[in-house]
Structure formats: C-alpha cells, structure tokens
Amino acid sequence: MRVMAQMGMVMNLDKCIGCHTCSVTCKQAWTNRTGVEYVWFNNVETRPGLGYPRLHEDQEKWGGGWVRTSRGKLKLRAGGRIKRLSRIFSNPKLPGLKDYYEPWTYEYDTLLNAPAGDDVPVARPKSLITGLPMQIRWSANWDDDLGGAPEYAPQDPIVKKLGDLVKLEFEKTFMFHLPRICEHCLNPACVASCPSGAIYKRAEDGIVLVDQDGCRGWRMCVSGCPYKKVYFNHRTGKAEKCTFCYPRVEAGLPTVCAETCVGRLRYIGLFLYDADAVLAAASVEDEHDLLEAQRSVILDPDDPTVIAAARAEGIAEDWIEAAQKSPVYALTNRYRIALPLHPEYRTMPMVWYIPPLSPVVDAVSSTGADGEDKDTLFAAIDQLRIPVEYLAEVFTAGDPAPVENSLRILAAMRSYMRRINLGDERDESIAAAVGMTGQTIEELYRLLAIAKYEDRYVIPAAHVEAGRALDEIAGCSLDFDGGPGMGGMGVFGEASGTPASVETFQLTKQRAEADRYDDLPESRGAVDLLTWSGGEAPPGMFPPRRSAEQDEPPTEEE
Amino acid sequence: MTSFVWVVLPYAALTCFIVGLFWRYRYDKFGWTSRSSQMYENRLLAWGSPLFHFGILGVLLGHIVGLVVPETWTTRLGLSEEGYHLMAVTTGSVFGLMTVVGLLLLIYRRRSTPSVFRVTTRMDKAMYVMLGAVIAMGMYNSLVVQLLGGGHDYRADVAVWFRSVFWFQPDAALMQSAPLSFQIHALLAMGLFALWPFTRLVHVFSAPVGYLARPYIVYRSRDAHGSARAPRRGWEKIGS
Lengths: 558, 240
Known about the structure:
The structure holds 2 protein chains of 2 kinds. Chain A is α+β, with helices and mostly antiparallel strands. Chain A has helices at residues 21-30, 59-62, 81-86, 97-100, 108-113, 157-162, 164-168, 189-193, 220-224, 246-250, 256-259, 278-282, 290-297, 304-312, 317-324, 327-334, 358-366, 374-383, 385-395, 400-421, 428-433, 438-450, 453-456, 502-513; strands at 3-12, 43-47, 66-68, 74-76, 104-106, 125-127, 176-180, 199-202, 208-210, 230-233, 238-241, 266-274, 339-340, 351-354. In chain A, the strands form 6 sheets. A 4-stranded mixed β-sheet of chain A has the order 12-1-14-13. In chain A, β3 (66-68) and β4 form a beta hairpin. By secondary structure, chain B is an all-alpha fold. Helix content of chain B is 63%, strand content 1%. Chain B is globular, with a radius of gyration of 21 Å. β8 (199-202) of chain A pairs parallel with β1 of chain B, so a sheet runs across the interface.
C-alpha cells in the first residue's frame, strides 16, 4: 500500500441552476489572455446537449482515455507509444478551433468614431483569430438551457446511445446542468499522452499541472484527455489546463469556481488513496465494476493501518486530519451518493457528482403529485427511465443501480426532512428504506442543504518552508509580456503570463480573515487589485497624504 | 576570400548555432515550441506537415551518409561509386520531392489561411526564405547536377571539407573545386544554421524519443523553492 493524498471535488448537481458564475470567475482569473480566448477551464453544459467542445464525449471520434485490451492491460485509446509518435507531425484527433468556437470581439471603434449622419453606426463582430469580420454561428453555451431541443439533443452521443428509448418518450423531456473542470484523474490519460513529460501529477496533492517550460506543444494531451479539459494556447503554442487553483488551494482557500458558486454546491477536500492499486482498479473487465473499483482505491482515513501507512509516506498530521474530515470522502465513500464522471474512460476521475433528483421531482410535481413524498418519488425513479438511464450513461458507464441508489437517498432525505420541517415526528422508516438511519440523513442534510462554508471546504494548507518572504505583485497585472495589457508578438511568438504567485493568495486569505488592514503582516509594495478584498485602502495604494505642517518628505522608517 | 568563406564563416555559423541554442534554452524555454497552428487549419496541414517532416528526416539521413561517412568506408563495404550514386540520387530525389511538396503546401497554407498568416512572425518569414533557399539549391544539385547532368562526386571534396571543419583543419581549397551550386547550397545552409536558434526550428531538438522509455504517469513534487527561484521568461513579476 502506497498512500498518496489527492485533492478532490464533489458537485451536487441537484442544486446547480446553470448560472455560469463559476465559468465566468474562472475565466477572469485564468483564461482572460490572448491565445486562450476560447478556453473555459470551467464550463457548465446543459444536458442532454452537445457539450464543450462539441460532442467531446464521442470517443469513437476523439479517441481519448484508456481502453482495456483483450489481455487485460490498459492502453491509450489513441494507440501505443510508437503509433502516436509517428503521428506527431499532424495530430489526427485534435479538435479544431471550430469544435470549440471562434472567439470574437466587436468593432467598438466604429461606434465611437462614426461621423454624424442619418445611419445608426453598428459594431460588427470581428474574429479574434483572423482579425476579419465574421458571422457568429456558435459559441460557448450556444445550446444553453436547450436540453431537449430537437436541434441539439439528438446529436448528444449519450442520447444516440440510448437510441429508441429516448425517441419514444421524447415529450417527457428533461434537462440538467453539468459543470465541468479538469478531473485531476488518478490515472490521467493526458499525462500518459505527453511526449515531453511536461504534464505531471503533483505528488503532494494529485493536482495535474502542465510545466509551461517543458511543454513543446505536441498537442497529444488535448487528444488524450477524454474530457477535453486540456487546451492548446494557440498563441504561445503550449498546453494549458485547470490548475485546481493550486495557488489558492496551497493557502487553504477553495478554488475560484467553488468559492464563487452561488448554489454552494461544490465540495473540496482530500482523499487518501492507494497509488499501487490504481492501475488494477482502472483495468477491471466489466465497466459496471469501475465505480466500485474506483471507490475501493480510496482509503478509509480513519483506519489505523491507513493512518500508519500515510505517516510512513510522510503525509503530515494536519493533512491526515483533513482527510478524516473530508466532505468529498464522506460523499463518495461514506454516504456513497457521489458518482464519477464517465468512469468508462478508465482515468479514475477525482471530480465526483451527486446526480440531480430535480428532473424526477419536476416530473412528479408537474403531474400534480406530491414531489416530496418518499413512495411517490421512489416510484417515479423506477418509472422515469430516461433520466435514470441518461444519468447512468454519464456517471456509471450505463449501470442504473448506483444512480437509482443516489436518487433514492436524495428522495428519502427530502421526505424525511419535510416531516421535521412540518413539526411531525421523525420517521425512521424513511431512512431505513435507503439503508440509513435518521441521524445519518440529518448529517447528510447538514452537508448538502445547509452546506456551511467550513463543511464544504476542508483544505489543509500546503507545507511551505518557513522564512520565505511574503511577497505580492505590484503594478498592473495585465502588463506582463504578451498579456492583455501588452498585445503584439515578440520575435519568438507570444509569451503568456500568469498573474499571481502563491504568496499573493496567502495574503488574500489573511486579508479575508483579518478585520482591518492594520492587522496584516507588513506587506511590501503596492497591492494588486485582483486580490484586494475591498474595505480599507491598504498602505501603498495611494501616495502618502502630505499634511500642511509636514513639509519634508516622509522618512524611511515611516 | 576563399578562406573567409570556407574557414571563417563555417565557424562563425557553428558558434552562432551552438551558443545561440544554449542561450535560447537558458533564456527562453517557454518559447521553445513549434507553435503549432493545427487548431486553425487542419486539412492542408494533415498532408503538408507529415510530407515535409518525413521528407526532411530522409534528407537528413542522406546528408549524414553523404557527408559524414567517408567514401573509403562504403567502398570497403563493397559499394561502388556508381552504386552509391544511384542510391543517393534515387532516395535523395524521393525524399527531396516529399520535402518540397510538403513545404510548398505548408507555405501556401500559411499564406492563404488568414488565421495562420496572422500569427506568422517576421522571424518565421525569414526562416521560411532561408529554409526554402537551402532546399531549392539542394534540389537543384540533386536533380539538375546529379540526375540530369554528369553528376559530381561531392564525397571527394564537399564531404571531406565538411569533416575537416570538425577536425579544426578546414581545407578551403576542396570547396573551391566543387561546382558553384554546391558552394551556394553549403553557404545557404550555414546561414540557416546561424539563424536556427532564433526560429521555431529549435523544436527539432525536442524530438521526444524519451517518451518511448518513460512510465506513463509522471509525478513531480511541489517545487520546494517556490517563487523564491529566479522567474523565467514570461513569468517575471511585474516591477521587480
């Protein structure tokens, strides 16, 4: 047993309203630069729908992820090492910009500079890729909220797979939102695809990152990732991906997408897992066994042998403690309600989902029946085959049983808690119907419905060597070489910058927790506005005020 | 003049090549990429790029056999001058044609696709001119001189001079006797090598052969030095 720690996330889809706040804040933080205009490290898809990039789940077409060979070994779907290297000069499975969308801007200048006249000036859309006027035909979330629309839904690879089942009952349509980030897999296909070895899994927390200096732009990771969550910066010629906001997570802060989620549906915490068991678990023969195999790789953090093994691997005490309190472990393994996204890709994804009960509740309520009654809901889960089968294709490689189990737990929680709300007696039989006790249901309710900040995010700070000077960015963070504040290309092409360092975020956290700016440790230089939490003006933001009697400039010790 | 062209220039080009590569790697690892434009356009690239790259790899192999391996070795292996000539001309023409067709496709693509042309730097254009000129002269030598003309045994002069450069005893007189087209080809090649470190051609040195041997999943530890390390190009803090 080789114990390793892994940052994980769980999203409770029952609460996702598809507001895209996560996508927007993520984009502002990470991909508001040239070359990644089309990139959304976090995106929210409407399902059934095409997804982003379009039809990314169609692995027949894109060849992402792993497959199990007849001899029981794992192989990248795109082929062996030599085969893929021979294709290095022109990657046959690379999504083109058109599969995402062509980013554009508007000719705002014509609005401002138009001469006085009878015609109203218009700002035409202009491609950010070619610089030419363009017709907008597709964009991120073009099919947003159009879950059942006949134009898009039939193209959904999962709808196609379910085939007639869906066509027959299409009037009973449903939809839900699916926020997606990088899965930070235990068995990442992007890492395995990288010819340069530039993508790596961090040994401490399992976050998958791209070494920007090591990346040579072969684009194999983009094809290898079945979730299409590695992106190619078309200006710098390097791969970029969701970083799990590692500078924030290292400081104990949740990711930007989680922090800003208005539905409070994201959970972040640690998993302890057995790294030696990953390959075997990813290679089980029956796809329906993959979910259990994945759960079995994750170790019980309260088990004394696991704790001892974790200590032996040098995992710090506060990390072990965080793993014990981990909300994600509770949701995946203790309550067994969270499910992985497309386990059949065999990458062991570490962003899990609680399937949405809402399509079922909506269907029940629309018939006038009681959408909070256990038996009605249970019966509906059994009868509404389309949502369940669809969810099963998304989360359990087509096995409806775990999806039904999760939905029944959610239904039981609804019904159990309603009695409490109405002042009725607690009905243990409701809990017993899903194999739980009233107490565990109330715990689950607290975690899922109350969802306090400190319950949702249990993130131990990274262990940084003491004595490193806290530092922060001064000046405009857009003005780095090739950044949006600069524009243009150097002779070697474009550079790209990332605006923040770990220390910035450690200060952000202290600032968030401090009552006043004066409570903060001495911060050197100016403060960048990206991480300024508002409130009082920090020292250095404005030049020191000169009082009337003080004529000489401020001295050094001031 | 002769010694300037065939003694001074080669060393100047080599120095520029080696020091330049070293400097570029130290200073600009971030820019060390071929800056693929496949996302913009794939139809022409799918043919042009493999044609060019496999062609130029064949050409490289041919140059190694022609320039590095002394004539006496192949003679000892029982390969006659006629046999060698036939082999060199046929393989050279095939790979050369692949390269030329591929390059023409790629240049056409670069010029005709607005998105691709937009990200073409001045350095790219200079590189294309240089590379195109070297390849054009090489094809002239292969097709006009070697295939249609009487042929020239470059292994008696050009190859010997080439090797003599690396023994630090360059013999300029040898090049003097070679046909003018060979001289121009060699001169242009020196220019290309001098330009090399400053162009996207650096990606040649990133051929990922190590991939065949490494384990699939790569683990790395969190950088122990953090940002206390000197920042790299593109990652500098502002105002420091």
